[in-house]
Amino acid sequence: MDVDAGHGAALGGALPTQPGELPLARRLRSLLTWPTNDTDPVSQLVRSHRNIHPSADPSVLRRAYTIAENMHRGQFRKSGEPYITHPLAVAEICADLGMDTTTLVAALLHDTVEDTRYTLQALAEDFGHEVAHLVDGVTKFDKAFYGKAAEAETIRKMIIAAGKDVRVLIIKLADRLHNMRTLGVRSAASRERIARKTQEVLVPLCDRLGIQTLKRELDDVVLLHLEPDEHARIARHVHDRPGWDAYLGDVVAQAKVALRRSRVDAEVSPRPRHLYSIWKDTVAGGHTAPFDLPRIVIVVDGPPTDCYAALGAVHGRWRPVPGRFKDFIASPKNNLYRSLHTSVCGPQDRTVEVLIRTREMHRWAEYGIAADFRFPRSSGSDTARVDQLAWLRRVLDWEQEAPDPAQFLESLRCDLAEAQIQVVADGRQVVLPAGATPVDLAYELGTDRGDHCLAARINGRLAPLSSELEEGDVVEIFTENDAESGFEASAAPRGPRREWLGFVKSPHAQMQINRWFAEHTAPGISIADKVRLGRATIGLALRKRDRGLASDLPLLRLSEELGYPDLETLLVAVFDRAVEPDAVVQQLIDLVDHRQ
Predict the structure, then answer these.
(1) Helix or strand holding residue 388 (H, E)
(2) pTM here?
(3) Catalytic residue among 40, 115, 200, 267
């Protein structure tokens, strides 16, 4: 984009002016007064960004920072720091991930529309609709107007925006990471509440996007605020491990020799666990002392088949531990993580964990969906990105069937659950959430199969429909329409049963069962629907007066003058009849005619 295009639209209302100074003079003054020494607050951001993207243009970052700094001037965080330190830190997190310039600009401006007089329309004029979409996607709904539904509707809005551009989610995760880093200044109750919500939605969301480099820190800071004593205990263990580095150095050296003898070209390095991972394994195994096995990672410089050659070399050097091998290359995790995992009896008969992957797999394991931006020429990244976002498309499909925002949020929490199982049905593997039942499976096989599900056979034996399925189960689903099933369908009630809602686990099954019974309850309506219908109501009132709108700009101006936080809130108020449509239209006409 043209650096100067729209520059005055934002700066004209943002920068302090000199008496009698023309807009062009203000513009030139802003361009000529950048700091040139290390006190420049944007210099570190620019360096981090250009280390990964050398051809990036820093001027647009400086312009975005100037607008953000002026708009947030006079605002402070609870720590007492100027508010601008937060969006700058969020942009730096995005830069460290390797995100593109557009993402960094949106990160710098991500709170301006929500917390300042800077409007989305002005932002779009200054930086384009792409940046405006990202900022709008992370802008929260106002609690004063939306009440308890604000949080759920905000997350719903963010997911919908991410369906068009996944960078919305990356900015949100960076925003939450910095807020978690600075959570210590909040009250104990606030720390626990925010940490819990982070653990329930944003940590699993980060995992689903595969961005482990962010997830590790989020995990650790959540542990710090929810289990401070355990965090301190694990931290002391990590700090005091005697001989740990020397032992891992010996393991790495021996692994390199074994790989060379097998003619496998690879890099080997220690792979220490983060605090939350150690704590999780300690609790899961019921250990009294922190359970922390030495671990190395082998990154082969070659095709995936070289990973299996490396596995052979490792098993040839050390005896493998039975039952500890996992092949996530042949069967990737739900976030497309791919690696071979094995445990061996290493030097001094200590159990050592070994991860084996290609360079491409290693990049994805660290950066997930962000790898496509950090390594734009990376082979295979486009395919991985499309496959990874299939999950997001599926969420968007059932999002439309959840009019209640609280139901949507609960369904999203369930869908993001890390634990999943694979079962076999109709001759194919089906992925389901852990604890899923034959009813969940039936709906996964098809809406009609779910609605008319009558009985199930698990591993050859009849089982209740509420039975929890386990990894590897072979399941047959019988419906009311299966004449050959041998079940008396005519004696059974038709359609789903309400009690199914008490045990189904998948959001898809929940949505479809609720859909079936929709005629027995008053239909809900989402904020998005209210916005759409509020806009239509204003359009109809305008047509009655032989008027119309060429753009949203007059409505945006009116929403500001009436004291609404954004246009969407005004449209919802029109739908709810908090304000009369005719009164709004009259004020809109007066505003437009007066400005003309």
Answers:
(1) helix 381-388
(2) 0.74
(3) 115
